[in-house]
UniProtKB/TrEMBL annotation:
Belongs to the glycosyl hydrolase 16 family. Residues 1-29 form the signal peptide. Its EC number is 2.4.1.207. PANTHER family: XYLOGLUCAN ENDOTRANSGLUCOSYLASE/HYDROLASE PROTEIN 8-RELATED. The active site is at residues 115, 119. Residues 25-229 form the GH16 domain. Contains at least one intrachain disulfide bond essential for its enzymatic activity. This is Xyloglucan endotransglucosylase/hydrolase. Catalyzes xyloglucan endohydrolysis (XEH) and/or endotransglycosylation (XET). Cleaves and religates xyloglucan polymers, an essential constituent of the primary cell wall, and thereby participates in cell wall construction of growing tissues.
């Protein structure tokens, strides 16, 4: 009797694990076409500290940071609407105080700039990274969301992507949507809908705020810190000088199938939010006694 019971317990654990694993590995039905990979050098340049950026023989790129400097890269061109992805393996070990950013931004010197951010906030050894996302439209940001990832982002490469068209912006991790920002111009909310954006990444010192709100500082004995990148993919409407007719361009990322999340992807987004989200500006009533208007639709 006792052995039957313990067997049953083990079986139910196995079933539970199977179900849990299946629900995490099922790809979104709204999948995107396979990436059109290109070399780092054809699409990007080093924008900060050449001697801290290493382009390896296999085409992967390492951003490094030590006490002298962090580092970064930027796309050569700018784009309006598209699909952008790369694979990143984040700083391992004690990465407290380090911030790895991967983002799209229009001209940052303008107070009316648009920006779509992934920011990975490092942590002490064994403690979870935070993935913070933010959306700026016409200079208005302060739309942070934060989540823990469902894997260790320092153990291997994972794909981080942004799909951007005139109706919706979809942030995804390994094709799983983690955030959307819809065009809510009709609610009086600005939307990034024409300014060309470049694609950027950087590794920098954020110890004043990044890890446990700034309590954990950078431990420089672990330097240099390294974030690795590969599988560079930009499929987007080039608009470097702002003269491109990207609003009317015919492209898969602007097609009807990608102007909203389908039911499966919406379920996935809701699952991720329920399970992994630790902060959402939409529910921060101290900051926003009345939730910003876009919150009801995103
Ligand atoms: C770091 O780990 C602590 C303790 O587990 C956690 O509270 C915090 O959210 C983690 N992430 C960051 C970036 O502070």
């Amino acid at each position: 009797m006792a052995s039957f019971c313990s067997e049953k317990t083990i079986m139910s654990k196995i079933v539970f694990l199977l179900v849990a694993c299946l629900s995490i590995s099922s790809a979104a039905s709204q999948s995107v076409p396979p990436p059109k990979l290109s070399t780092f050098a054809s699409q990007y340049t080093v924008s900060w500290s050449t001697d801290h950026v290493l382009v390896a023989a296999d085409g992967s790129v390492q951003l490094t940071m030590d006490q002298v400097s962090g580092s970064g890269y930027a796309s050569k061109d700018m784009y309006t609407f598209g699909y952008v992805s790369t694979q990143i393996k984040l700083v391992g070990g004690n990465s407290a105080g380090t911030v790895t950013a991967y983002y799209l931004s229009s001209d940052m010197s303008s107070p009316y700039h648009d920006e779509l951010d992934f920011e990975f906030l490092g942590n002490t050894t064994g403690q979870p990274y935070i993935l913070q996302t933010n959306v700026f439209a016409n200079g208005v940001g302060a739309r942070e969301q934060r989540l823990y990832l469902w894997f260790d982002p320092t153990a291997d490469f994972h794909t981080y992507s942004v799909l951007w068209n005139k109706e919706i912006i979809i942030f995804a991790v390994d094709q799983r949507p983690i955030r959307i920002f819809k065009n809510n111009v009709n609610l009086g909310v600005d939307y990034p809908n024409f300014k060309p954006m470049g694609i950027y990444s950087s590794l920098w010192n954020g110890e004043e705020w990044a890890t446990r709100g700034g309590l954990d500082k950078i431990d420089w004995t672990g330097a240099p810190f390294v974030a690795s990148y590969k599988a560079f993919n930009i499929e987007a409407c080039e608009n470097t000088n702002g003269a491109g007719n990207c609003a009317n361009a015919v492209a898969w990322w602007s097609g009807a199938a990608y102007q909203s999340l389908d039911a499966t992807s919406l379920n996935e987004l809701n699952y991720v939010k329920r399970t992994y989200m630790i902060y959402d500006y939409c529910t921060d009533t101290e900051r926003y006694p009345q939730a910003p208007p876009e919150c009801a639709t995103n």
